[in-house]
Protein 1
Amino acid sequence: MPYGWVGQVLRINLSEGKVTKEPLNLEWAREFIGGRGLGTRYLYEEIDPACDPLGPENKVIFATGPLTGTYAPTGGRYMVICKGPLTDAIACSNSGGYWGPELKFAGYDMVILEGKAPKPVYIWVYNDQVEIRDASHVWGKTTEETEDILRAETDPQARTSGIGPAGENLSRVACVINDKSRAAGRSGVGAAVGSKNVKAMVVRGTGAVEVADAMKFSELVFESLRLLNESPTATKALRGLGTASTVGFTNSIGILPTNNFQAGQFGEANAISGPVIAQTVLRRNKGCYSCPIGCARVTETKGPSKWQGRGEGPEYETIFGLGSDCGVGDLNAVLYANYLCNLYAMDTISAGGTVATAMELAEKGYIPAADLAELEFELKFGNPDAVMACLELMAYRRGRFGDLLAEGGYRLAEHYGHPELFMGVKKQDFAAYDPRGVKGMGLGYATSNRGACHLRGYSMMLEWFAPREMRLDPFTTDGKAQAQKTLQDKAACEDSSGICTFTTFEVTPDKLYPMYNAATGENLTLDEWNLAGERIWNLERLFNSRAGFSRKDDNLPPRMTREPLTGGAVQEQVVELEPMLREYYDIRGWDDDGSPRAETLSKLGLG
């Protein structure tokens, strides 16, 4: 029996109603680590990347890492991998909570969903017992209602991962939600699950994940815990204030996106910031499986307000997406919009980005008066009623405008003849950092394989958060290509291992790869670990190339390259993308069109 990995794949052919179990390809696991990398390898081998992401030919893979379900710090992650309905590119969305470990405890590293069920179903997994069950009674219900019903009829200790109304209606901003509020958020993976008529996977496992060298593994884990507990980022910032701790800083330096990235400072930022959340609406913090940080916020709206509710959030990205990017500074409204996205199972970044795009289109007069007349609200920045209404429209595809919103911001802007007003890359919305004030992030957004993403190469750590003597100047292009390449490869390994990116502020690659070795019994060197990350990144690039992507798609909206950002520390800045991109391709070993050269593929074992 393998260690770390549990050695088994669950394959569910929904068209035939057939369940099979097969050994995990351990050769691939060693080459691609697990999770993101291994799931991508399976997908690359099993589907045509040019297929319709909402068609039965697409597959959806739920993949864990070798550290998932162990007592590694934050060893609770799993990934949803498919061709992305929002982007038409490779999709890999990462989530925490408890569902991933539960899948490992049931005896599976990975679940592959293929085909399409003839009617709504859910999957019930109890160790070796696997059933495809009717889900007609929960189809149309929210994520919270669905989890409560399915746990009641299976096992109260079971864990669920599934979709809400947005995924059922094939909204391209739909996500997958587990444990009621943990989201595999980006690229429309919830729509891919919905296209297969799968409502949820409910899992209960009573096994365990064994590690190869328990003594060594324990030593490494306890050393990592010490580092995390001493870390000001992990404790004071994330444990104390959650990711919302970032709001005040990005606003002060001028890169908090506001009104669809028309500005980098929001006048009402303080009202929706981490300290205010902690002092007013926070009930408690919360952690995922094996998490020493506890960055999640459990909140409840306060005071006289039409927006009343309770739930989890908001994260920093949500505060931007549903707050500053839409010009909304009412904290109760931001919380309520967050709760709606959890219930409908929608990515808060892309949902907010789509609403902000619609608001700017309306502001500039690009949406015909006849279309606006159909709406029962005023589509303008700063109107929380518009945000709530648009979220419902895009989740349920209500009316013609709801259909357009559900297609995401790029397709909405393209429909009205102004795709340049969409702020994203490869049809996926930017995250909460305006790249004109952090230019390495601009290169990272442009080259991210899954579309615009801050987590694939988080150069904010080097450009703003690092000690001054180690910092890269955020306003130049110097060193950004090499930094992004290194960070992207690093993130690929971290995602594949099964731990949370927040751990890696302190658990750096030189500490993570020995933990992986102790868990699996492998004997990788640091160079081999880094090479695995590069291998994963290039395989994702090959997938996208076969799907029709090329250099033309490694771009930024003209606003980022032509319209200077001002405010705070940012004055008269644009992103000079081309010189960074040329250097990046050269460092990657890619040709002028962004395709990996033969010698690069040979070095990585992909030739």
Protein 2
Amino acid sequence: MAKPGPIMRPFSKTKVAPPTPARPLSAYRRASWMAFAIFLAANSWLSYAAPSPGARAWIFFAGLVLPFLLLIGLLRKSPPSAGVLFPSQSLPPMPLAWGAAFCLLALALRLGRLTTLSQWPLADEGIFGYFAVRLGEKWDWSLLQGLSQLPTLFTWLQAVLFKIAGPSLADLWLFPALWSILLIPAAWFACRKFFDPSLSAIIVGVAAFGFWPLFLGRFSTQASFMVFWECVEFWALGSFGKAEEPEKKSRAFLLGMVTGIGFYTYLPWFSIACVAALAVAGNRSMEFPRRVFFLSILFLTACSIALPLFLAFFHTRFDYLEHLWSLGSGHPFGEHLDLLFAYCSDLFWGARHATFRYGPLWGGFLNPLLDSCFLFGWIVLPRFRSSAFAHWFWVSIPILALPALLSDNFEDMRIIQLIPVIAVITGLGIRFLVSTLPPLQRTFPLFLIFFVSSSLDFHHLFIVYGHGWEEKPNYYGAHKSPEFYRAYLLLKPLARAQGPGLILLNFNPDPYDQTLFVATYAFNSAENASLGPHPTRWAAILANVHEEPYLKKIFPGGKWFWLSQGLDRMDGGFLLEVVPVTPSNRALLERWTRADHSLKELTYLVMETGVNPDQSRMLGVLEKAYPFFKGDPLLESRYWRIRAVHESAGQGTSQAVEDEGKAIRLGHPMAHLYNEMGCLLFKEGKMDRARRAFEESLRLKPNCTDAGENLKNLILMMKESGKTRAAPDSR
């Protein structure tokens, strides 16, 4: 194996030995390029066309499986040295300027359209951003966060960035972009521990310009951080493997430290740790006792670092992990097989999901060109059959896929640990193809492969994905909030013109989406204490659209925007009220701000525990908050509506009905309150009272609810089944 050289050696002016003279193209070489053309045509059809299931099966068999098997059989008949398959340096030296251009382009792709590509964060990104902001306000050392019980290292680092630069949409997306940028040098150093400079450069090129790594770097979630740290893990593993005996002990400690820290990155890390341990245990260059010794160092060091996290998981009784666990779930084997096929389809050709799944929108994670090179990489791998590295690599692939295969549902983020493996196999395939050509003819085909591949992937990311939310809003569903995006477009220019304002967001009965909180925190003086106590000139309150008549009476100088217009929300959706702060309303707005602050702890509990059947802590917070709401009719309506939501989540439906009644009696009678009461009464089986509640909802104006549809369904089912219980279409 070639000794690792300085970074970017393929692009330096370092001279290398002249390549061996090119041999004439043999039959198997011509067959390789012919097979590549067939692979490319089949993968393009599967990725971008919409063939019927029967045609899809025929394309898969005739265009992929059959030529794949024939090519393997043909290559097996050739000696391993036939052709220039794996020379130590299969690319000619390239100018250093090309390396600089490579780095600048990779940097630009990760920072370009940073705040405009996605337009608005996903709810998951809002969760991470919310916890990072709260950590910046008051640090705690909790190792798990949120309903999903995720490790908090990503959030700790994000909180540091927010503390330095301030929370904003730009910084929310800059954070994953930084890890995506750092992935490139990490991948280079990792590759140089295993491969020569040429192959390392090709693999890093796949990681730098491929759609999947670029796409991943656009989401402010733990996944982008874990893939970067995975490359650090493989670098530490390679450093251990190549170390001489005096250094091996310290490199084993280093590997154990990197492995232990990795458990704090993301839940799928356990598969990466298993792969690293397997590499140490199977290293046949060492005697068995030495392997056991170094494996013990790795295990003890990693476990010592990860022990606090394991104890935190034990404290939560692995609730979320048990929820994800597929074994023993009662699902038939066919469903597990469908899950495997769905992951494979998303990887290569796209699965056409009806709802958002962090998956590709145009073809697969790999474009047809990289699909075809990946197949050649699979063909090349058996030629390493005498190498311990090849054996480890083969076994590592199913181990890395375990987080996805052992989970109970589909989520593309559970296979992101395969990105380095996919890049290596694809890089092997690319080099195999260009190595079949004479040395002086390899540069242009390699450039052409990357140019066409990158063009497809850039189109996928910046055009298809960039316009995806506009063209397919229903695909994202609850994962992205059009209302909050519209609110931000209204509030950001206002803050730029008039400075920070009071933005009251905690009155939302379902506060799980905190994207607007993160996006506006920099100019929200109601939440951001660092903005100081200076007087604000404006206030914005997130309300329900049915509150508009009462808000107009309270704030006659305000402006109202129906954020949910055209979205057909069951309760009418959100209204944003923007009012100038004047001496006449300042005291009232200060009271409303205190009421909003009293629900801050409730919002945190919802983000931390979700819909927990035990609502005692949340109801306790509401009890303490009630004095801030008491006596103000509109605040009373909001308070009792929020309380009804939590009573219902705790299976206290009767108490929830009573709370909805108090929202009407102590506050204002509004259509959405009666509609919600009707749904709760239906849940209790009180059909007549439910019917009267729906009718009362329809009597009130404005009415933007689905009470009419609920009443229609209820009456129809009562007539057909003699008041047999049936579910109205309602929340």
Protein 3
Amino acid sequence: MTSFAPVGAAPSAQPPAEIDGFQLLINALKLNGIDTLFGLPGIPITDLTRKAQAQGMRVISFRHEQNAGNAAAAAGYLTQKPGICLTVSAPGFLNGLSALANATVNCFPMILISGSSEREIVDLQQGDYEEMDQLAVAKPLCKAAYRVLHAQDIGVGIARAIRAALSGRPGGVYLDLPAKLFGQTMDAAAGQASLIKVVDAAPRQLPAPEAVERALALLKNAKRPLILLGKGAAYAQADADIRALVETSGVPYLPMSMAKGLLPDNHVLSASAARSYVLAEADVVLLVGARLNWLLSHGKGKTWGAPQAKQFIQIDISPTEMDSNQPIAAPLVGDIGSCVAALLRGMGSNWPQPSAQWINAVAERRDKNQAKMAETLAQNPSPMNFHSALGAIREVIKANPSAILVNEGANTLDFTRSIVDMYEPRKRLDVGTWGVMGIGMGFAVAAAVVTNKPVIAIEGDSAFGFSGMEVETICRYHLPVCIVVFNNNGVYRGTDVNASGGADVAPTVFVKGARYDKMMEAFGGVGVLASTPAELSAAMHAAIANGLPTLINAVIDETAGTESGRITMLNPQTAKKINSGN
């Protein structure tokens, strides 16, 4: 018997609206102000990238996950928001993992989000597609690692990852999302209510008043004080107070490479050109966002003169960083902005200036070294060498101080750091704490995407090879990136020979006369072959003016360059010779 609903009866209730894991993840990210994703599509995240782009997020797709991860790390450093890198499972995850570890070592906030195989298959090792216990692999290499198994926990997972990446000392975080999570559904209203907007992810940590007084007393009584600025000081974005600290105290300052530009490199108190002198002679050193690691010879050795005659004041948000290599007489534990502000308040308006003898001694050596450098830069050898090429680039940066400089290589890194002045904060990105090559194109893409500023990437030909295929990415997104490849035909230089007399070239030698500029042309960008400083300068000015993706193949003398650049001492063969007295 057929039954009929009474005439005028209300229609049957519609099933409740549902939301899936894809949408919950997108909503959670957008709720927390994250609008850009870096990654490489593939199973199981391809649909995530499509849906995110369709809903207004910017999705920058790379040719290799390591470069996407490096982009996310650089974005985190520049914005103080965690950069997001998306990868597929297992091999894709492993490719992104090196960038995650590098971000953690450098204290860049980044979240690596990877799809993964299902737990029940992984745990029984049943041989799933790209099976790997990714969470276990990631844990030792990042600041924190989490796995989300249920759609209702996506909000919690994103919130915990953001807070871990940003709070205290920033770093890398891994978030593991098994494939079937994306297809899970739940009631839409309940799902939206499960999301969390992170409040005060990086709370200020104020230094203890007695710690501030101790530091001020030490600084006031110093005869030869020095302020050493690290990239942590640049990340803090406390630019005005850091400049005021230097100028109020009257203390010479020495910036580490990524801190260049916090004060202009041509500032009267800059001691960059007198680095060796001030490190050896200073009696009190105030470390602001810098660590006494290998980049500073661990605060030991002949670089530092007589370490027993030095006292250190160190500002760091991590108390365990103190005394890591040298005793810290005045530890200031807290965030850099709060610590610097507290020092400024304590100084007042009548802070005693360092002795004229110390200031004049620093200035004398700085001026002498700058004059010597000017003579070297004025030379115009043929073919170009590092100095003549960088002399041209130095003037381009001076004319375009808001451009972001990305720099990697061995000699290319070392010479650029000492020759090219920076004038604004966070305009220099380089290989950082690990000195790892391959950051170039990822950093360049991120800088262009998140700042909308022109980017100049100064690359050694070897370093460029690590990420060079991303020139296609740069062209695809029409990014204003000008790449300068210093082409001397090899690693360090192109003159090594095969000691066996065999047909193979030496391990450090590349194809002679390689045309890197043609790579950019292949993808629709501008390629330029430059063999003189004038040609290099003209091409760079044109690239900045037109905003087109450009690669300049700067041909330099293949004999230019030294083994390992300025870290020759880390080469085991060199160390063996020195230790044996040869």
Protein 4
Amino acid sequence: MAAIIPEDFDPEGVERSLAKVVALLADRLGDEWLILPHVPFVENGVEGEVDVILVHPQCGLIFLEAKGGAIALRDGTWLQNGLPMRSPVDQVADGKHAIKRKIQRALGRDALVGVRHCHGVVFPDVDAVPGGTSIPDLDQRMILTASELQWPEDALAALVGETNAVSANHLEEIVRLLRPTVEFSGSLGDQLRGIRRRLGAQTDRVIRVTRNLDMMNDRMLVYGPAGAGKTKLAVAWARRAAAAGQRVLLTCYNEPIGFQLQGLFQDEPLVTVGPFMPLALRWLSPWDFPAPPADDAPNHEKRAYYEALPSALAEHRSEIGAAFDLVIIDEVQDFKPEWLETIRSMLDPEGPRREFLLGDQNQDLFDHGQDEVWDLASHGWVRVPLDANCRNTLAIAAVAARLVTGTEAFPDNPPGPDVRYFPVGGPREVWKRVRDEVRYLAEEQRVPLSEIAVITTRARIKDHLIDKSFEALERGDGDVIRLVAWSARDEDAVVCETSYKLKGTEWQAVVMVNLEPTDGEGVVRSLYVGVTRATTWLSVVGTAETAELLHLRP
């Protein structure tokens, strides 16, 4: 039986087709095989993943893309359950090349010399490929259907062809890079990963009962603090509705979390998912609706644009054609009331017209005037309170609770490392403190750069830190770690953004920066959002006033 890495792989956290493929391969491959499911990568600000990487001492690395349901290729277009999809061949090939570049960046240009690497696609719900089929860029040996999955060793041997033995130490080094959770050397980075897994399991236990409320209710408002499991509930409900044949819209406002959610539903044609603005622009594309104003555009231009968007959607509603049985809105506090009305109009009049809203008033950074959303109980809605913060260690949750009352952590959460505080008087000191702390986490404690975020309460400090980072790189100041905006992220850089931008996301380690007066408009909420992004490690860089508010000492 093959080994799955990580050992605590959760099949409920991935697409149904991927879970099915992993289970079949684990059961029917020999002991020398390692199965790495859902391996992520980030390149040029774009996230992706390879569904499965198989590792074997003679076969090297085999990259697989799994697609469930009915698969067809008509006139050069791939279809999944009758709907167009991106070519799975292109998808797995792009993922393979991205992972190869990741390995070479980390382990050297020669890291893959002598290591065979090939790719294929898996259609677990297709019985067999019709005889005589010819598909561009896809040899028939590269297709694994339900027939090949009966005897996967034979199918993989045909796919790989000539084999080449690779040393166990070298393969182990590659596996450690792709799955760092298997490395237990006692460093802080390894401890943090273990804590994070415990927190994830804690969240699953706490929301287990709540998860079934969708089977009894059509309209729910779920509210609770950061880390209460709201997004996990949204994902579980979307999956269950799609499995029952319902058309689902799952959306939020912030692009980072919206695009992450999008990656979870690539094989679910009944689920339309993504951040609201890009979805709206996609629906309006036939009418050439303009792109949003730049971040530095005047506020009146932004206001006018976002007021025009729902009107345009309403105007073209009958032509857009999208209709849903269930609408799920995560982080509902970010939505203007008129946006919610526009989304509600996309429910099919003939369908069940189900609506689930999830949010947290304490994370309302945009002040969109939604008092009526939080008063839905008088209109036949079921209100579902979640009161346990399961995302953060007790140390981080204690800091969050000093900012917003009623956000205490679940008692069984792990204690975690103490929160660190570094005093600064102004922007000049901030860069040095942030640089040193990020270096400490990355170099001494081996926390992956892609798991560290620098979060600021104001955009001007974010821009200052990114500028200082690139100035240091241009001067050639030693081994400088790059700070980049979310849109430019990759696995060799640290994301530096505002709390506004990173709402809904979570990071293993966060360096929180604040130079604003703590009685300033929205600063406390911005701090609350920022610190609760950290699952296991939090450092605060800020004024003495910030430390006093958070009860921290240098």
